[in-house]
Amino acid sequence: MIQVKVKTDNAAGFVSNEEIKLFASEVALQRRKIYEKTGAGNDFLGWVDLPGEINEEMLADLEQSAARIRKNSQIAVVIGIGGSYLGARAVIDALSSNFYTLQYHNSNNPLVIYAGQNIGEDYTAELLDFLNDKEYSLIVISKSGTTTEPAIAFRLLRAHLENKYGEAEANQRIYAITDGSRGALKTLADTKGYKSYVIPDDVGGRYSVLTPVGLLPIAIAGFDIRKLVEGARTMEQYLRQEDDLMKNPAALYAVVRNILYRKGKTTEVMANYTPNMMYLTEWWKQLYGESEGKDQKGIFPAGVNFTTDLHSMGQYIQDGLRNIFETVVRVEEPNRSLSIPSDEENLDGLNFLAGKRLSYVNKMAETGTMLAHVDGGVPNLEIILPRINEQVMGQLIYFFEMGCAISGYILDVNPFDQPGVEAYKVNMFALLEKPGFEKQTQEIKKRL
Q: What pairing do the DSSP bridges indicate for beta strands 5-7 and 111-115?
């Protein structure tokens, strides 16, 4: 059963059903390219069939590794950048208590924290200080093993781990998720005997959450990766079978956002009203930004957390430049129930809300905000989830991945490469005088 729904009613004043249906043949063409793997970037379409290919052996192996880490570690440090950590973090944060980082010592599951997603000196030094008196393990994620940020973090953390436990035990506490046959991390893992998992060659980083890249950290955090995969598999099967554009949520989402883009709505703001979904937004921003921002075109993905940001970004969204549309992630039913009490003095004037659940107030704020923004010229799309659990998150992940692929092909870009990411690396390596970049070093120094 599909639990992720797309609703376009609040974009009706900007996009008609007739306009959407005009894309039927276009969507059919792009879906064929995806499923037959004939489109641009087809060597990175392994994620399309991935949910159905995850087998019992892999799941059991991941669960065993997670159990070992839970047994001997208070902390699990995930070393990675971009898709190598954002997918796992999105799922873990969504499924966890908002305060789980403060409560981990009362849990049977390690606290999952992150390194290598930046090169902040204070961040890394403070992380090492934090780990001094903690039992911990490392999960290092990199196809090559040479990506600058995670490679630096791994060098520092590996030294810290070996100094703390000795090399032999440290090697048993390091889990490498990397290329199956080549690369610096693969070579080191084989030499040292690290427990290793493979990132499939045909799955790019930002589409990798349903590989060991995401599944191992999620399992370590204590969540049911079988249900997550089951949810993704359900969505995979449904999207493959549903040819009606109006009933295929990924295709519908892709089409409406492209119609809005062609009408000058060049920025998409994802809004959620559930605080622990913030990193879902961060993962979505990377998925869509890195996939579509090419050839001097693409929708710019931004994010807000309401109602918090209604008191900051709300003014701009309501009255600012009219180049934006919103995609609201709506969670119908929270996992907890909390009602507003009556107060005898009623100094705050809130007794009219007494007995009502906070989720009801939140939903009215959400509905009122959408109506105000639509009236202000901002179309709203809704992605509706019944609740937050592993199955729903699995469906949501695959929905966004397929929506991104279809949308990128409609936009006529390759959604699976990232040529622009290399530009900053060349400049950084030149400034750092990395061997092999001597010519670039000379050239860039003339500009300074």
A: unpaired
- The yes-or-no answer on residue 7 being catalytic is no
SS3 content of the chain, % helix, strand, coil (to 5): 55, 15, 30
Say if residues 328 and 380 touch (Cβ distance below 8 Å). Answer: yes
138 CB neighbour count, 10 Å cutoff: 25
User: Which member of 332, 425, 438, 445 is catalytic?
Assistant: 425
Question: Cα–Cα distance between 358 and 335 in angstroms, integer?
Answer: 12
For the stretch 292-335, pLDDT in tens is 999 999 999 999 999 999 999 999 999 999 999 999 999 999 99
| Spatial distance between the Cα atoms of 136 and 127, rounded to a whole number of angstroms | 12
Mapped onto helix, strand or coil, the DSSP state of residue 25 is helix
Average pLDDT estimate for 145-166: 95
- Annotated catalytic residue, options 268, 290, 292, 390: 290
> Over the chain, what is the mean pLDDT?
95
As to burial, measured by CB atoms within 10 angstroms (0-12 exposed, 13-18 middle, 19+ buried), residue 121 is exposed
The structure tokens listed for 359 are: 């989720």
The Cα 185–Cα 190 span in angstroms is 9
Residues 6 or more apart from 435 whose CB is under 8 A from it?
Answer: none
Concatenating the DSSP letter of every residue in 233-301 gives HHHHHHHHH---TTT-HHHHHHHHHHHHHHTT--EEEEEES-GGGHHHHHHHHHHHHHHH-BTTB-PEE
Which member of 18, 56, 105, 311 is catalytic?
311
Q: 160 an active-site residue?
A: no
* Contact criterion met (CB below 8 Å) for 38 and 282: no
- Which residue in this structure is represented by tokens 């929708």? 299
Q: Which domains does the chain have, with CATH numbers?
A: 5-39+228-411 (3.40.50.10490), 48-223 (3.40.50.10490)
Confidence label for 435 from pLDDT (cuts 50, 70 and 90): confident
Q: Is 290 an annotated catalytic residue?
A: yes
pLDDT at 104 over 90: no
Where does the pLDDT of residue 357 fall: very low under 50, low under 70, confident under 90, or very high at 90 and above?
A: very high
